Amino acid sequence: MNRGSGESRGGVNLPALRGYNEALLLDLLRGAGPAGLGRAELAARTGLTPQAVSKITARLGADGLVVEAGRAASTGGKPRTLLRLVPDARHAVGVHLDRDELRAVRVDLAGRVVAESGGPLDFGAGPEAAVEAVVRAVARVGDPTGLPLLGIGVAAPGPLDHRAGAMGRVTGFPSWKGFPLRGVLEGRLGLPVLLDKDTNAGAAAAAGAWLRAAWPDAETDADAEADPEVDAYAYAYAGRGADVGPDAAAAAAAYAGGGSRTCVYLHVGTGLGAGLWLGGGVYRGARSAAGEFGHQVLLLDGPPCRCGARGCVEVLCLGAVARGDLSEAARILGEGAANLVALLDVDRVLLGGRVVEAAPEVFVAGVGAVLAARALDPARPVVALAGAGVAEGAAELALAPFFGRAG
Fold it and tell me: How high is the pLDDT of residue 116?
């Protein structure tokens, strides 16, 4: 999901690529937010001819995906008609399969949650029981009006094979190894399913949160007052300028690709892992194995970890959590994060998961203190909360193909 005024994707004026060009325009309109974009701007950013843009937007309008958003102020000529995405025209579902609970959300095209459901899950009961739980959860969050879903994103504990859609050797749960979860769910649900690690979905959720700031909540769209930070996200995403505060502008630039483009998402829950957002998208590695952060060894000959090694950051951090020493847990997490920052030189360290959510100030401060102490460069990464959950990230990955993205 690499975006930015200087890195716009180009359209292609060939009938065979009609679907690609439609997705390209929808992606730009999604990023523009309710303010919308004019046809001339869409043509300039894609390299498509004005005639091609007019034909494509007419088709999108007929499909209910695009509507007029008013007219732009005149600069001497005829005022331009602006177009915007219709977020509620299509939906997608994201599901987070954790080791002891399941959460599902239905989101609109802007990534806003419009329905959610959650409950306990026994991951150790095996794949068949989990499949039934996912099917029931998708039914609970489905649209009662019958609006079709674009797809389902499922986030599960790793390791897993993202490309094949199969589970790997999940630590402590041998019955899951090799289970073709994506294919089984597609057969049961009759919809496209994307399977990814929970930490990768967490990284996508952080990027989606930056984008969602461009869209006011659905119930307040009609009378939302102008918000300079929202404008910053919307304008930077769309490649325009806005007079906004430095924090909002920096966050907007991060999503647009014009400034901060790299982050690591650290998830602390029943396990501990990382999702990497590098070069404008989720980095999975050649074998979908990137981000096994929790099993880096911090203490030689330390306590045994369930992965078979000793002194892993996961066993040390979760051990401190079990003792009620959250400050120590945050310090250990920070040491692991500092290793990752030194290796990858990321701009942001984003924290999420139920353990972090229970004491956010402790973890943000604790991780930030370690990074500050170990920083070799004064321009150290920002440490912050992720701003969205793993289920939202799974839904964001499910939306990606609709907007011409790999997810």
Answer: 96
